[in-house]
Amino acid sequence: MKSNYYKELVAEKLLALCAYLTVLTTILIVYILLTESFQFFKTVSIAEFLFGTRWEPLLEPKSFGVLPLLFGTLMIVVGSAFVCIPIGLTTAIFLSQYASKKVRRIIKPVLEVLAGIPTVVYGYFALTFITPILRVFIPDTEIFNALSGAIVVGIMILPMVASLCDDALQAVPKSLKQGGYALGTTSYEVTTGIMIPSAFSGIMASFVLAISRAFGETMAVTLAAGATPRFTLNPLESIQTMTAYIVQVSLGDTPAGGIEYQTIFAVAGLLFLVTLVMNLVSNFIMNKYREVYE
Fold first, then answer.
1. Which of 25, 101, 114, 198 could form an SS bridge with 172, CB 3.0 to 4.6 Å?
2. Nearest-5° angle of CA 286, CA 19, CA 27?
3. How far is Cα 255 from Cα 204, in angstroms, rounded to an integer?
4. Are residues 232 and 188 in the same domain?
5. Within this chain, do residues 156 and 19 fall inside the same structural domain, yes or no?
6. DSSP 252
7. pLDDT at residue 38 greater than cutoff 80
8. Which DSSP letter does residue 145 get?
9. C-alpha dihedral (115, 121, 124, 129), degrees to nearest 10
10. Which residues pair with 55 in a beta bridge?
11. 229 and 68 in contact (C-beta within 8 Å)?
12. Band of pLDDT at residue 189, cut at 50, 70 and 90
């Protein structure tokens, strides 16, 4: 009996340690971002950083307006959402409501394979396949462009949307679906009028989580969209995202401690804040629209 007690105690302490390490890691990340960003904002005003339209911290004269990076990131996120949300949701509806077990056994592994492909492969796929197709139909498209990056990121996060939406739809009790058919409704009416509203919280949460994933994508976007911090809304031009800039400076010859080096933490802090807001929105949606079935 004592041995079982000590085993339970050790397991409990190990689990608690893992939880505390997670919290500690988050606190340390926030602390580093805040301290380094504070040093940056001693030199650059917050207004110049947030509302400036020119981002050239490595050239003379230096400029620290983050809007080109922010708009580049938003173009990738919005474009990828237009790709992954409708395709992912319809795929989930097909898998959960219409697909036979045999078809489901084929499609689900394919989605898992898509989720396991390295992001650098997606980047080369965009550069060597998607961009040439775009240039056939739109000759003005640059070799590196935001549209190609958005499409490939949408394909990359498609498995996340499809899988999470499928799980949300599968969690709806079958009695609700059967009750709809008993009332004489069609399959389409059951799907749109019963299944989707009942799984709404999980579906919306999957959208927000996928968008948060798109915010943090780096390699695929860097290879497909380029590294030109340009304040534009034209998806056919080369742009640079916040994560791509962080990689560019981190792998360069920028000396540690300088204002150029501190821009990494200022941009990373803004990216962290945006992602945090997205996760809070996701939790709010899940809690507000959650349906509890017994």
1. 198
2. 85
3. 43
4. yes
5. no
6. T
7. yes
8. -
9. -50
10. 64
11. yes
12. confident
